[in-house]
Amino acid sequence: MRILILNGHPNPQSFNAALAQAYAEGAIASGASVQVLNLYELQFDPNLKYGYRQRTEWEPDLIKAWELMQWSEHMVWVHPVWWGGLPALLKGFIDRLFLPGKAFKYRPNSVWWDKLLAGKTARVITTLDQPGWYYRLRFGRPSVNQLKRSTLEFCGIKPVKVTYFSIIKTATETQRSEWLRKAAKMGQDKK
User: Fold this and answer.
1) What CATH topology corresponds to 2-188?
2) What's the rounded Cα separation, in Å, for the pair 109 and 114?
């Protein structure tokens, strides 16, 4: 299996980076072909300046990222939840890459669209400073709805599984070690 891991945390020293690495190590140990894309390493303007009215040409790092997304069979999106949503870096990455004609295609004179990334699967691994159940019940899990439903599934990627690691701010080293083991196991199982 070809797996692309996208780390959407802007800090290379983050626990999200450690989770992405643990998943990668587990997947590699099980024989998967793995590529890790740390968004903080990419050079691109995250602002979709003209919306869809005028094309903003992709920088070389976005071209490479798109090629890796096309190569992958399974994507793993790792990110923290900030103010209920995605970090700006990850949101800008999605805005710039998931374009009409690339990730989806509107049908003429129709409300329907073609899902150009069909055939791929994904997992979202997200960290929270509140329990996952509380995030879901109290707030409706907006970051998951945005990434899973409004982006990945909209473009044909399914199934999309979601894993929460929380509560990060109060986690002990023992808890964090267990979460890293769990991420590595998910990688081994290619889930």
Assistant:
1) Rossmann fold (3.40.50)
2) 13
CA 13 to chain CA mean position, Å: 18
- In Å, how far are 5, 11, 81, 178 from 132, measured between CA atoms? 22, 22, 11, 17
Task: Domain ranges for the chain, please list them.
Answer: 2-188
Place of tokens 């044909």: 156
Residue by residue, pLDDT tens for the chain (191 residues) are: 999 999 999 999 999 999 999 999 999 999 999 999 999 999 999 999 888 888 889 999 999 999 999 999 999 999 999 999 999 999 999 999 999 999 999 999 999 999 999 999 999 999 999 999 999 989 989 999 999 999 999 999 999 999 999 999 999 999 999 999 999 999 999 76
Residues near 128 by beta carbon (within 8 Å), at least 6 away in sequence:
80, 81, 135, 164, 165, 166, 167, 168
Q: Note the pTM of the prediction, 2 decimals.
A: 0.95
Q: Say how far apart CA 134 and CA 131 lie, in whole Å.
A: 5
Residue 104's nearest CA partner among 114, 112, 94 is 114
Number of Cα atoms under 13 Å in the Cβ half of residue 142: 10
